[in-house]
Amino acid sequence: MKIWMAPAGLHVEPGIMADAKHLARLHGSAFFHGWSEADLGAYIATPDKTPLYVACDARRRIAGFMVLQVAGDEAELLSIIVAPKWRARGLGAALLRAGFDDLQTTPVERMFLEVDEANGSAIALYRRFGFKEVGKREGYYPLKDGTPATALVMRCELD
Ligand SMILES: CC(C)(COP(=O)(O)OP(=O)(O)OC[C@H]1O[C@@H](n2cnc3c(N)ncnc32)[C@H](O)[C@@H]1OP(=O)(O)O)[C@@H](O)C(=O)NCCC(=O)NCCS
Q1: CA distances from 136 to 55, 86, 110, 115, 132 (A)
Q2: CATH code of the domain containing 96
Q3: Separation of 96 CA from ligand 1 center, angstroms?
Q4: What does the mean pLDDT of the chain come to?
């Protein structure tokens, strides 16, 4: 079984179907186009294509999650969220570390992501993991209120 240690007494492991409802609530609280329970269940059902990782405690109370999409030698970070009360404790980093570690056993060589250019804490986290800006998409990213924002496209080469 895959399991990675995380700060604050939590750990990271692959998502299971029973998580989908909680993940949908967490996603909807952070993003304008919140994913439904069915969307999240579809990701969980295809772990080779869309690995999903949750940060949770021993009773599976979920503090955050991350979804990747894998295609050939590339992966895309589709979403990463940590619940507000759990932020700035290293859980975002723990989710990324788990995903990177898991990809070691796959043909994936690089990861891409898109992030609102105003999302300083996410960008700082990605830079620490070696992501570099490779492009911009004007008016692409819908903010929580629906306003379009410019997205940065970032890329990271895996070791
Ligand atoms: C982006 C996001 C996932 C980061 O999650 P997080 O758990 O807060 O991330 P981390 O704790 O690993 O790192 C965040 C900050 O906490 C700091 N930190 C990490 N561990 C810490 C600790 N033990 N004590 C104090 N600070 C700590 C990090 O240095 C970092 O600081 P910085 O951003 O000023 O450089 C979270 O802010 C979030 O869910 N945002 C809303 C959704 C979102 O925007 N997602 C990304 C776009 S898809």
Answers
A1: 30, 30, 18, 9, 12
A2: 3.40.630.30
A3: 11
A4: 95
Q: Distance between CA 108 and CA 49 in Å, rounded?
A: 11
Q: How many domains would you assign to the chain?
A: 1
Percent of the chain with pLDDT over 90: 87
Q: Distances from the Cα of 40 to the Cαs of 25, 37, 46, 145, 155, in angstroms?
A: 11, 5, 10, 22, 24
Query: Atom 48 in ligand 1: which residue has the minimum CA distance?
Result: 79
What's the pLDDT score for residue 86?
A: 97
* pLDDT tens track for 50-68: 999 999 999 999 999 999 9
Range of the domain at 106: 4-157
* Cα of 92 from ligand 1 centre, angstroms: 5
Give per-residue pLDDT as tens, 7-53.
999 999 999 999 999 999 999 998 888 899 999 999 999 999 999 99
Atom number in ligand 1 closest to CA 8: 23
Distance 99 CA to ligand 1 centre (A): 16
Q: Which of 58, 75, 78 is nearest to 66 (CA)?
A: 78
